[in-house]
Amino acid sequence: MSKTDRLADLKKEYTSCALCKELVNNRTNIVFGVGDPEKCKLVIIGEAPGYYEDVKNEPFVGKSGQELNKLLASIGLSRDEVYITNTILCRPPENRNPKAEELKNCRARLDKQIEILNPRLVITLGNFATQYMLDTKQGITKLRGKVVEKNGIQIMPMFHPATILYNGGKNLHIFEEDFNNVAEILKLPPQKREQQRTLL
């Protein structure tokens, strides 16, 4: 069975999930993930769906998503060449952080997604997703840009792209450095990166 079919079965399994009562009552959609399962070498994990993600049924479609798209393009990747998901599938009320029970309920799904996709690298965006995936209390400032192996998976924590918006792009050079490292890990052809940059 192909990765696409296996993911489709997993998505179907969770489409009517009702384990987290507060999230069920708040959500419009279950935001499962987006990308090409057959091609992707990179999985990106955020915290939770926001308002626009919940409405459009797709992760990272707001302003932060636009910044993420630019960063991917800077190393020659388009959005459909990676796979993007979140620690939980449903939007929390008022965009609060996911609760421990909600994370626990969704962990088997996330682990199964990663197992099916079998990426070369996983990026965790922001403090919350990073601490959750690495099971650590260390902050993102200390962890960002460092590749950590956990349960056989290469994980690279990064700042959330929303920080580019918050501080007027003053930390853009940090993202550029981290994404250049991603390009090296994934062995992306330099010519592809240059071609993509001309489109920005």
Brief summary:
The chain is α/β, with parallel strands linked by helices.
Task: Please provide the count of β strands.
Answer: 6
In angstroms, what is the radius of gyration? 16 Å
Regarding quaternary structure, how should these chains be classified? single chain
Q: What is the CATH class name?
A: Alpha Beta
Element string (H = helix, E = strand):
HHEEHHEHEHHEEHHH
Spans of at least 5 consecutive residues with low confidence = 195-200
The average pLDDT is 93
Provide structural commentary.
Helices cover 48% and strands 12% of the residues. Helix 1 packs antiparallel against helix 5 (100-117). A hairpin with a 2-residue loop joins strand 5 (148-150) and strand 6 (153-158). It has helices spanning 3-14, 21-26, 51-56, 63-74, 100-117, 126-134, 140-143, 162-166, 172-186, 190-197, and strands at residues 34-35, 42-46, 83-86, 121-125, 148-150, 153-158. The chain has one domain: Uracil-DNA glycosylase-like domain (Uracil-DNA Glycosylase, subunit E, 3-Layer(aba) Sandwich). By secondary structure, it is of the alpha/beta class. The protein is globular. A 6-stranded mixed beta sheet has the order 1-3-2-4-6-5, with helices on both faces. It is built from 10 helices and 6 strands, in the order H-H-E-E-H-H-E-H-E-H-H-E-E-H-H-H. Mean pLDDT is 93; it is low at 195-200.
Can you tag this structure with a few keywords?
10 helices, 200 residues, 6 strands, disordered C terminus, alpha/beta, globular, six-stranded mixed sheet, Uracil-DNA Glycosylase, subunit E
